[in-house]
Amino acid sequence: MSDSLVIIPTYNEKENIEKIIRKVFSLAQPFHVLIIDDGSPDGTAQIVKNLQLAFAEKLFIEERAGKQGLGTAYIHGFKWALQKSYAYIFEMDADFSHNPEDLIRLRTACLNGADVAIGSRYVKGVNVVNWPMGRVLMSYFASMYVRLITRINIQDATAGFKCYKRIVLETIAMDKIKFVGYAFQIEMKFTAIKYGFNVVEVPIIFTDRTEGASKMSTSIFREAFVGVIQMKVNSWFRNYNRK
Fold first, then answer.
1. How far, in Å, CA of 146 to CA of 162, rounded?
2. 83-128 residue pLDDT tens
3. E strand spans, 96-157
4. Which of 98, 128, 153, 234 lies 20 to 30 A from 18 at CA?
């Protein structure tokens, strides 16, 4: 039995899904994997189901009807994880932009005192490979914008590679998390910090996908831009005392 669950949302990831699953299971630290698939028409879910024969009791899949957003996929996974006995719950992309070997480093950070460990692209310079300069600048300045509005000291506010201790997800009211796209990652960090949890950035190298298509869109960035202000204002009227 593993104490660590890696949640991987998928939509049309047939080129990557088997490779990423096998890589996670090859690591020295035992992890379980939960795939949240939003009705991928390319057969991603079936590939996972076939792999379950080889990885019984450690590979799981939850299927949802149609694209419902990254944030709702993770919240679905968080609730699933909390029903189980996992102590450490991870977010990771399916496309190898996040190096699975860094899962161990994120877990170690939580073992050493972090409540949330973030795989950070910007805590030590800019560590991004194969992104066009325009996207690097957009991402980097998005984090600067988040720091300006929210006053949280996180260099990579939009990062999606994370490890949570169970208590963080037990404390955050999932039904009050409003955003479903890019802004979801910001809102989760902001909320964890408001509750007084120790959020630590672990430097990683982020490598853009080489197979499959990116899910990023201008509407996702728009949600983040407007949503950060809305999130900050709403926080003035919320109680962040832990029960």
1. 18
2. 998 999 999 999 898 999 999 999 999 999 999 999 998 887 666 6
3. 116-120, 128-129
4. 128
Rounded percentage of the chain residues whose pLDDT exceeds 70: 88
Task: Give me the CATH number covering residue 193.
Answer: 3.90.550.10
157, part of any domain? yes
Residue 95 domain flag: yes
Q: What range defines the domain where residue 30 resides?
A: 4-235
- Which residue from 120, 241, 87, 123 is spatially nearest to 172, judged by alpha carbons? 241
Residues 134-165: tens digit of each pLDDT: 666 777 777 788 888 888 899 888 889 999 99
How many structural domains compose the chain? 1
Instruction: Evaluate if pTM is beyond 0.85.
Output: yes
* Residue 221 binned pLDDT confidence (cut-offs 50, 70, 90): low
Both tokens of residue 170?
């037990």
Question: CA 212: distance to chain centroid?
Answer: 19
In a domain, 240, yes or no: no
* Cβ density class 134-158: b for 16+ within 10 Å, e for less: eebeebbebbebbeebbebebbbbb
Q: For the chain, what's the residue count? A: 243
Cα separation, 241 vs 100, in Å, equals 34
Place of tokens 């560590």: 127
How far apart CA 159 and CA 97 sit, in angstroms, is 11
In three-state secondary structure terms, 115 is coil
Residue 108 lies in a domain: yes
